[in-house]
């Protein structure tokens, strides 16, 4: 192995070390974000759980209320396009 090869290997090593450090920083930031999002999800879940017994809007619903039929001209127009008729 010559001097030139040794320099190339040294530069490659430096690039790999920098890339590794950047990935470690990114990983730490993502782990922090996941932790924050998990905490937020737990909080929102507890808020929802405490609200459900008090909520008057949770009356039993019929399927028509959950999934109203859409008979507008907009929907018929797009359904008639050949792309959607496969």
From TrEMBL:
Keyword tags: Activator, Coiled coil, DNA-binding, Nucleus, Repressor, Transcription, Transcription regulation
UniProt entry tagged with the keyword Repressor: yes
InterPro entries hit by this protein: AP-1 (IPR000837)
Transmembrane stretches, start-end: none
Coiled-coil annotated spans: 13-47
Compartmental location: Cytoplasm
Classification via Gene3D superfamilies: 1.20.5.170
Domain of life: Eukaryota
Database matches in PANTHER family: BASIC LEUCINE ZIPPER TRANSCRIPTIONAL FACTOR ATF-LIKE, FOS TRANSCRIPTION FACTOR-RELATED
Family: Belongs to the bZIP family.
Identification of the protein by name: Basic leucine zipper transcriptional factor ATF-like
């Amino acid at each position: 192995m010559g001097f030139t090869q040794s320099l190339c290997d040294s530069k490659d090593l430096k690039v790999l070390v920098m890339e590794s450090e950047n990935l470690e920083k990114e990983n730490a930031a993502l782990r922090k974000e996941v932790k924050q999002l998990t905490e937020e999800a737990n909080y929102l879940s507890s808020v929802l759980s405490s609200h459900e017994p008090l909520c008057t809007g949770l009356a039993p619903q019929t399927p028509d209320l959950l999934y109203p039929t859409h008979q507008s001209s907009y929907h018929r127009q797009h359904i008639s396009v050949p792309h959607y008729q496969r």
